[in-house]
Design brief:
The chain is mainly alpha-helical. α7 packs antiparallel against α8. The longest helix has 35 residues. A hairpin with a 5-residue loop joins β1 and β2. The strands form 2 sheets. The chain has a two-stranded antiparallel sheet with strand order 1-2. It contains 9 helices and 4 strands, in the order ααααββαααββαα. Helix content is 43%, strand content 5%. The termini are far apart.
């Protein structure tokens, strides 16, 4: 029974296009690199894109995928105000106990983790044909290609080419190894309405949510880069002083 469950779990991940073993080995797929604001030594996250990406996750992805390592208070780093964070958290209900110790619910608080779409793993599998939708907290760092792969996957849904045999229940995706993926196309033009007026094309939404998922996977990226720049600057100055000291010592030695 345990072996059968393990096989089902492995098949589910593979079908969702989020596994890495057999699928990656079966066919290498070229993933085009995208332009990201956070690339490079001085790269930073585009806050407007992060907020739009959170909206796409909240309105589209969160119906199946959890993000258990993120708390609502973390959204302040995206540029949301304290009041906005409280309002976002309050949209969800969490289990609690009343004064009598009876089970009840309460409004979400900034300190709460993101709300899970399913009560447990069994419920998640039951709602997804046996497949377990992976948690997205670290997905951008857990997949080869990172945000480039996520963008390619989200924009890679196309009509099945002539002569290609698509298995029952699968969808054609140009970015997924093997080109067969169980996850249906998640994004369609104008699926969300951006508060800033940005046109919600598939490409735009894919770019924004990929940016957001990169931030959730590495929220300290900007801090790390700033520290790296400071270290490199210090080392550059130290190198100059070391070289000048070397020249001075060499001149004294030659003078003798």
């Amino acid at each position: 029974m345990m072996m059968r469950a393990m096989k089902i779990g492995a098949a589910a991940l593979l079908a969702l296009g989020l596994g890495t073993g057999v699928a990656a080995a079966s066919e290498a797929v070229h993933i085009e690199k995208q332009e990201w604001s956070f690339n490079g030594a001085f790269g930073t996250f585009d806050r407007a894109s992060l907020q739009r990406g959170y909206q796409v996750y909240k309105e589209v992805c969160a119906s199946c995928h959890s993000m258990k390592y993120l708390s609502f208070r973390n959204l302040a780093d995206l540029g949301f105000s304290e009041a906005e964070v409280k309002a976002l958290a309050a949209q969800y209900e969490y289990p609690a106990l009343d004064e009598s110790g009876e089970a009840t619910t309460r409004k979400g608080l900034p300190a709460d983790r993101f709300h899970s779409p399913f009560a447990n793993e069994l419920a998640a599998r039951a709602s997804n044909g046996g497949a377990l939708p992976p948690d997205l907290s670290l997905i951008a760092k857990a997949r080869v290609g990172g945000p480039d792969y996520l963008y390619a996957l989200l924009t890679g849904y196309h009509e099945t080419p002539a002569g290609f045999t698509l298995n029952a229940g699968m969808n054609y995706n140009a970015a997924f190894p093997g080109h067969q993926i169980a996850m249906a196309k998640p994004l369609n033009d104008d699926q969300v309405t951006y508060a800033d007026g940005t046109k919600a094309t598939v490409a735009q939404m894919a770019h924004d949510v990929s940016t957001f998922l990169m931030w959730t996977a590495e929220p300290k990226l900007e801090e790390r880069k700033r520290a790296g720049v400071k270290v490199m600057g210090f080392l550059a100055i130290l190198t100059v002083f070391s070289f000048l000291t070397y020249l001075r010592v060499r001149k004294k030695v030659q003078g003798h």
